[in-house]
Write a sequence for this structure.
């Protein structure tokens, strides 16, 4: 499967990251890997666009990074969702749903 | 495994992130790449392939473009126009913390700049502390601005306001009773030397005679005990009570807790101590204060015999008035009211009050004695100017350092401007840096200045340590230092900041580091500053040299008497309870006994201390009796014993010396000096002419004329002097003059033991030698010259550090050029010569300018100089030579290191 077009990906990237962090705190590589795995390889972010995205979310105060050291592992930066981020996520999930619903209704993908 | 870290760093470099943030990103991205690599390796990808994939990942898209807008937040501390928050305090705080970081990053520069500024600000603080103590010193009294000082004036005589004299006690009482404008009026005498005895010891102590309401009028409260009650100042001799000064309590009485109620003996009269004055209060005169205060009704016991009638005689002027204005009354209203009273008194008591009026001025002006005031004011102004110049040199040094740094920071500034920092914002940031430097220098300078002041103060004459005011370190001084520091920061910061903000962005960004800042105009500003520094330090050195030469010539002044091998002892037999007969016997016994001591050539007594005399008004010359009191003749009057002129080596010009026969009951006689003789009997024989002493009825015949000596100050213009024989004018305290054959020190011990043999109760605190008298007379001048010298060399030191810095900097900038020259065959000598020539050209220009300025200044100062011309070749030449030598060393050191550089190294590095 071809990777999803750039613009679509960018538009949904924030939602993807926030959703993954809603489950538990994760480090950058973990998030990237999960997106790739769960999308079956359809979504893949390069390091050069993925981390700037994380920093942007952090700047907005939606997520918060913290260096964590675990035994036998290198130091990693774990990100978790902030209270503000949770609000944003809820909002984005809702509008995503509406958006997808609207698109589906028009394109007739769901019900024929 | 490739080194990804450096690859990431390369990509981030142009973002110019704060180091901590950059390290964080590098670590996170590196971790990511490492994870990816491990994963690929674990899945069986060969090492080479894994590396290729990961590296590709990194270079896939433009990390920089993505990060730039996001990371703006972290660059926020670098002021950019677009991120100016608009909140002044927020911006200030950002600028401040950024400035702190910048200064911390360049510790060498910061240290030199702060030290330089601290020296400049410290010198200013020290001088200001002195001014604050003596001139601005707010009296430690309640609402000092509503208080006035009252003196007797003689408007008809001179019209000059500074001829102010004390008020007689009876006039003071009349002013107290008749005025309608003061809520309270008090009077105080000057500090009087008294003999203080406690236990078996006798010492010199100073007591001030004050009216009972003195402390109440001033509105101050005792540290312990109480002040005088009204009835303690109603009946003469009835209440011998004293208030002790705080410093005297701490010093003389060892802070004794039982000080209240303790009896102390002053001039053989037993006083009871009733209270201690507050700390820091040393009377109204801010320079010299008493050890204790006694009520005016005890005046007879404290005042010297000439003022014995102070309480009864309107002609005896003893008290200075101090009064508190009633609310709403202005100084001019008070002056008018008091003048009416004074006019009435002049009509009622023409004998004593004719020609007298009254003068009022703010008490804060009176804290400096009328005579000390002018000198102190002029001296302070002068010193303040000098240290102002020292500060200017310090400023221009730091400005030069900043300019040099600005050149090195051109790229940083260009990047910031490229990122959108506005010019104003940039200037503000750079000024924050310089003001911060000024502030730090100010804090250090404040302490340096105070330490300097304490050091200076440690040279005050030890015998008066408790009576002299202490340097006051209060809010005034702190605010002054702070203001100087902030002003300084702006002064030296503004030019470099404006210049930096005009950095041409594209050009600067393209420049390589080694060529940075070699613009001609930058060097020009630095050069102008440097020439100015050299000129100003030369001026300061010349001024110091001029005054040094002046004081040396003052030492060479012939005071009119021989100072070598002369010992002087002040004795107060009257204060030890001696009556007239016993005192005169004591004077005679001392002379007789000392005459037999080996090594003593001659002995005499006189009422005046050398260099401490003052002219008395009211001398009348027979046949030239003036019509009014207002045209009084004034003259120094000295009461002397036999052999005085021999002992002092003052030559007799005409007539004879006093003899045994000039005694009470014989014809009254005087000896005058040639100044008086020539002034009133020009081209006549003054012998056998007659004159009347101030306040005396009888005429005295002139029997001799002696050469004029110095009586008040060294090198003074000739003053009239009249000598009266001791046997015809009684004095209860006299100064013993002993002429020795050799060093007077050994003879002094003999003198002291003879005095003790005669009467152990006599105080012998004041023992000095003739040379010490001259030393003391020049003490103030010596301190001044010392200060000038210190400031002159401080300026020289600062200027040479600045010169060194500039030459070293320009040498460093030109290392490649020098390397090329040397590679092409230039010898060490020619490189050395090249750099020295450039440095010394500046120095010589500065010296030239300095010489011109010094000559102009010398003209202005010529009035205050003694026996030194305005254009003094020795001072000008000496100062120039010292400056040229020091400057040469400052240029030579960096020049030498440049000439020794290996051309290959010089070409390769930087």
């Amino acid at each position: 499967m071809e990777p999803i077009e750039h613009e679509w990906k960018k538009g949904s990237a924030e939602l993807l990251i926030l959703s993954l962090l809603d489950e538990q705190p994760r480090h950058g590589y973990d998030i990237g890997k999960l997106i790739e795995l769960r999308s079956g390889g359809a979504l893949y972010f390069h390091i050069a666009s993925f981390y700037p995205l994380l920093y942007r979310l952090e700047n907005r105060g939606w997520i918060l990074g913290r260096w964590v050291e675990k035994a036998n592992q290198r130091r990693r930066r774990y990100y978790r969702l902030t209270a503000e981020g949770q609000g944003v996520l809820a909002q984005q999930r809702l509008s995503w749903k509406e958006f997808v619903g609207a698109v589906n209704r028009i394109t007739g993908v769901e019900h024929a | 495994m490739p080194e990804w870290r450096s690859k990431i760093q390369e990509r981030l470099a142009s973002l110019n992130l704060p180091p901590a943030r950059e390290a964080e990103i590098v670590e996170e991205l590196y971790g990511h790449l490492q994870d990816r690599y491990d994963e690929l390796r674990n899945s069986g990808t060969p090492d080479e392939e894994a590396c290729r994939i990961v590296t590709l990942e990194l270079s896939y898209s433009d990390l920089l473009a993505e990060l730039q807008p996001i990371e703006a937040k972290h660059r926020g501390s670098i002021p950019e126009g677009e991120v100016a928050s608009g909140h002044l305090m927020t911006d200030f705080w950002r600028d401040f913390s950024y400035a702190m970081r910048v200064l911390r990053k360049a510790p060498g520069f910061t240290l030199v700049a702060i030290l330089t500024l601290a020296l400049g600000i410290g010198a200013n603080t020290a001088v200001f502390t002195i001014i604050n103590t003596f001139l601005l010193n707010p009296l430690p009294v309640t609402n000092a601005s509503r208080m006035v000082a009252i003196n007797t004036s003689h408007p008809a005589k001179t019209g000059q306001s500074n001829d102010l004299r004390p008020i007689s006690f009876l006039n003071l009482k009349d002013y107290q009773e008749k005025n309608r404008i003061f809520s309270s009026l008090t009077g105080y005498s000057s500090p009087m030397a008294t003999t203080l005895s406690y236990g078996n010891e006798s010492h010199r102590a100073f007591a001030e005679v004050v009216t009972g309401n003195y402390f109440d009028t001033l509105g101050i409260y005792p540290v312990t005990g109480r002040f005088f009650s009204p009835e303690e100042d109603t009946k003469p001799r009835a209440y011998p009570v004293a208030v002790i000064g705080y410093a005297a309590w701490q010093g003389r009485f060892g802070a004794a807790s039982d000080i209240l109620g303790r009896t102390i003996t002053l001039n053989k009269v037993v006083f009871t101590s009733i209270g201690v004055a507050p700390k820091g209060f040393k009377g109204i005169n801010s320079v010299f204060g008493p050890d204790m205060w006694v009520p005016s009704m005890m005046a007879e016991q404290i005042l010297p015999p000439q003022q014995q009638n102070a309480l009864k005689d309107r002609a005896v002027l003893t008290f200075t008035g101090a009064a508190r204005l009633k609310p709403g009354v202005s100084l001019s209203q008070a002056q008018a009211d008091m003048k009416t009273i004074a006019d009435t008194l002049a009509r009622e008591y023409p004998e004593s009050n004719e020609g007298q009026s009254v003068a009022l001025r703010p008490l804060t002006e009176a804290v400096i004695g009328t005579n000390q005031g002018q000198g102190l004011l002029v001296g302070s102004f002068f010193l303040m100017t000098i240290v102002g110049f020292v500060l200017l040199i310090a400023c221009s040094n730091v400005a030069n350092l900043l300019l040099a740094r600005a050149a090195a920071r051109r790229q940083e500034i260009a990047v910031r401007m490229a990122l959108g920092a506005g010019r104003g914002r940039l200037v503000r940031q750079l000024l924050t840096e310089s003001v911060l430097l000024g502030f730090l220098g100010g804090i250090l300078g404040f302490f340096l200045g105070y330490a300097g002041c304490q050091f200076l103060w440690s040279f005050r004459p030890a015998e008066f340590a408790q009576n002299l005011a202490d340097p006051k370190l209060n809010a005034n001084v702190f605010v002054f230092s702070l203001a100087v520091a902030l002003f300084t920061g702006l002064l030296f910061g503004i030019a470099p900041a404006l210049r930096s903000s005009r950095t041409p962005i594209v050009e600067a960004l393209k420049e390589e580091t080694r060529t940075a800042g070699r613009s001609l105009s930058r060097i020009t500003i630095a050069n102008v500053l440097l020439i100015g520094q050299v000129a100003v330090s030369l001026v300061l050195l010349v001024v110091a040299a001029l005054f040094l030469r002046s004081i040396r010539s003052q030492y060479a002044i012939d005071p009119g008497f021989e100072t070598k091998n002369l010992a002087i002892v002040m004795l107060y037999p009257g204060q030890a309870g001696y009556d007239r007969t016993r005192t005169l016997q004591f004077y005679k016994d001392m002379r007789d006994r000392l005459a037999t001591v080996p090594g003593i050539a001659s002995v005499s007594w006189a009422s005046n201390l050398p260099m401490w005399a003052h002219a008395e008004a009211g001398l009348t010359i027979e046949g030239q009796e003036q019509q009014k009191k207002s045209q009084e003749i004034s003259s120094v009057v000295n009461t002397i014993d036999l052999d005085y002129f021999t002992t002092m080596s003052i030559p007799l010009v005409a007539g004879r010396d006093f003899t045994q026969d000039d005694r009470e009951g014989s014809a009254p006689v005087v000896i005058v000096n040639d100044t008086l003789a020539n002034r009133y009997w020009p081209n006549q024989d003054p012998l056998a002419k007659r004159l009347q002493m101030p306040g005396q009825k009888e005429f005295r015949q002139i029997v001799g004329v002696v050469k004029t000596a110095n009586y008040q100050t060294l090198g003074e213009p000739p003053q009239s002097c009249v000598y009266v024989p001791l046997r015809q004018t009684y004095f209860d305290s006299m100064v013993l003059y002993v002429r020795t054959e050799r060093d007077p020190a050994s003879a002094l011990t003999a003198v002291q033991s003879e005095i003790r043999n005669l009467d152990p109760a006599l105080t012998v605190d004041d023992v000095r030698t003739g040379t010490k008298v001259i030393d003391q007379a020049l003490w103030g001048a010596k301190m001044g010259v010392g200060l000038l010298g210190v400031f002159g060399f401080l300026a020289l030191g600062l200027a040479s550090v600045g010169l060194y810095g500039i030459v070293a900097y320009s040498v460093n900038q030109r290392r490649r050029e020098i390397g090329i020259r040397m590679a092409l065959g230039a010898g060490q000598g020619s490189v050395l010569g090249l750099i020295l020539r450039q440095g010394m050209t500046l120095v010589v220009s500065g010296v030239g300018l300095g010489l011109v300025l010094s000559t102009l200044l010398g003209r202005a100062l010529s009035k205050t100089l003694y026996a030194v011309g305005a254009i003094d070749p020795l001072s000008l030449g000496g100062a120039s030579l010292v400056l040229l030598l020091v400057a040469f060393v400052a240029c030579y050191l960096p020049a030498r290191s440049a000439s020794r550089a290996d051309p290959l190294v010089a070409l390769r590095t930087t």
